[in-house]
Amino acid sequence: MPLKWLWVIAAVSALAIGTAGARSYARLAAPYYRFVAEVLADGRPWQVVSVDVRPSASGPGWVLALVGLVREFSTDRAPAAKLVSKLQVAAVAESPVIFWTILLVWPAGSGRERLSRLALGIPVFLLLEAATTVCQLMNPLAYASAVLAGEPDPVTPWEHWSRFLEEGGRVVLALAVAAVTATAVGSRADPVSRP
Predict the structure, then answer these.
(1) Where are the chain's structural domains?
(2) Which of 85, 80, 106, 133 is nearest to 3 (CA)?
(3) Higher pLDDT, 195 or 53
(4) What's the pLDDT tens digit per position in 70-113?
(5) Less Cβ around it within 10 Å: N or C end of the chain?
């Protein structure tokens, strides 16, 4: 079978698995998302109450939801706002499907090279998830803080990053990070022998 057909089959298979398993993946990843969100909220007037998967209130499907509290100042006892940030589970599954498909189908010189690539992929993937899904979930908390602070234009860097991700940046980032990870563990060519 020609190599180009293997790529097509791998991509279609990954898409089908990602679509069918998006809700399960989001549910499985929710504790990690909560942990990272709590780390990002530390030192800010934000509190992460929960991160879970629930049915979408605006139509069919499921969403990953972060419930958070925002205070005007970190020392305030009572929150000034309670927010629910939502992402469609299909969007949540996008990065993992792209990232792991690229790593799995990237040509390898040996099984050891492929295993090394996958081992390197785990921490890189966790950082990718923090930079994409978690940051998008945290964006409304940053916006609420800006509004509470009286900002005339409460568009924050979190908002700019979230817009970038929503407009195709998530796919580009997943592709780029996967390609860099795949090439970081590559076949070492034999050194040129000197006469």
Answers:
(1) 3-184
(2) 106
(3) 53
(4) 998 888 889 999 999 999 998 899 899 889 988 888 888 888 88
(5) C
